[in-house]
Amino acid sequence: MSFLLLAAEQAETIEHIAHEVPGWVTAIFGVILAAMIASLALEEKIHAKKSIIVGAYAGLCLILGTLLDLIPFGKVHLPNGHEIELPVYIPAIDWGVITIILGASLFVEVTSRSGVFTWMAIKLTKKSGGDPFKLLIAYGCLTVLFSAVLNNVTAMIIVGSLTTVSLKKLNRTELLLGFLLVEGLLTNVGGMLTLISSVPNIIVGKTAGISFVSFFLYAAPYVVIATVATLVMARVKFGIASLKTEEEREEAKRMVAGFDENESVPSQRFFWFSVAILACFIFTLAGQSQLPGGLEGLGMGFVALFFAGIVLLAYKHEVDKFYSTVDWDLLAFFAALFAVINVMEHALVLEKMGDGIAMLLALPEHVNSAVLLGSAAVASSVTDNIPLAAMLAQILDQLKTPSDSPFWWCVILGANLGGNITPIGSASTVVAATIIHRQQLKLGFMDFVKLALPFAAMQIVLAIIYVLVATSVTSGVGEAAPSAGM
């Protein structure tokens, strides 16, 4: 499974980082990380794209990392025994994320020409009767489902495309910002539903020895609660209310009744081809870990690029128009961000964060769980949650933490939900912010934080309460069991 391979590589990277890094060096890189976050928050005042800002910090980190002898140079050893020469920053980049964004973006762009996404959006809009809140519920649930069976980035790209079509058809584009932001936040909620929904789930679940079924049974109630709470909060926060009067409902029904989902279908042949290929795409992504013949090792990024290549054959003489629609700034941003995070790992910035969190385990019972979850979320909001989850899982494993300990779930929930605090906290929130900008809606770094923070805080508080209640119930059952047998 590609996720497991990635998790193992991340854990191995952390485990083999040298521990002789002077404290002042770690402090310098900690300041650089804080400065990068501050620069992103001032993006509009700096008048520079995110990729340029993070790229500049990536260059600084690589130069300092080289001068201070932090970065390991040399040949890259492949599993088959071969060695290849690569620039040191190339292995630092999570190419799985890059290829998923590139492949999924191209796939959705080409497939949308068949009218399939417009058709789906209009169908869903008609089912809602034109009621904005019913539409939000439908797209919210679809986001959670897609995030659980696909990956957060692909889910956000597909659902974001459908949402844009629906609200434009309803002439309710003033609600688009709220819809897209909530969908971005729900991708990280849905990503907690199963053991294989996100990389942190796999890392922590594998280390703790949590089975697929046990993971689902524990996570599902929280995902349902958090989804409902997020949708209700969005209704109040963004004014996405249900239609109040019978006249409004009748007017909305008349409007959506006039929508023709087939008017955007230029060719029935290409339409049904797109429906079939979309179903295959989703099915293959969902079952990618079970592909035969070792094909699962190619990863979800390859699947996305492969299907993008198939649909591009329909426009083989004009593929350049689709290449021009790719958000290269977004891809460059992620590549630079991964390079920064990799140097931070070698400078032991993430390890120091992990050590600080590990000290929290000595706090009184229940308090330590709450503080651990909250701290993991805050740490995850400013750095990659994959190495963070790997580091915390390693710490818990070294402490011989039992598999039924709430600490494991504090890390899982914190690492996933922390991505909702800032627009750089997770790949899906970055994609959501990018789609928002593409629709010419104003949303800077701090604007995102101001809007998303109440949702993230609510989700994290619910997660803390859920873990504490689940722990109390489990402890109660464990204590009652012996007496029952007497």
Brief characterization of the structure:
This protein has one domain. 71% of the residues lie in helices and 1% in strands. The protein is built from 22 helices and two strands.
Q: Topology, pairings included?
A:
Blueprint: H1 2-15, H2 23-41, H3 43-46, H4 50-67, E1 76-77, E2 83-84, H5 95-112, H6 116-128, H7 132-149, H8 152-169, H9 176-190, H10 199-208, H11 212-237, H12 246-257, H13 268-286, H14 299-312, H15 319-323, H16 328-346, H17 349-359, H18 367-380, H19 385-398, H20 406-417, H21 427-438, H22 445-484
Antiparallel strand pairs: 1-2
What features would you describe in this structure?
This protein has one domain. The chain has 22 helices and 2 strands. The chain has helices spanning 2-15, 23-41, 43-46, 50-67, 95-112, 116-128, 132-149, 152-169, 176-190, 199-208, 212-237, 246-257, 268-286, 299-312, 319-323, 328-346, 349-359, 367-380, 385-398, 406-417, 427-438, 445-484; strands at 76-77, 83-84. Strands 1-2 form a two-stranded antiparallel ribbon. Helix 4 (50-67) runs parallel beside helix 16 and helix 19 (385-398) packs antiparallel against helix 20 (406-417). The longest helix is centred in the C-terminal third of the chain and has 40 residues, at 445-484. The model is unreliable at 1-18 and 480-486 (pLDDT under 50).
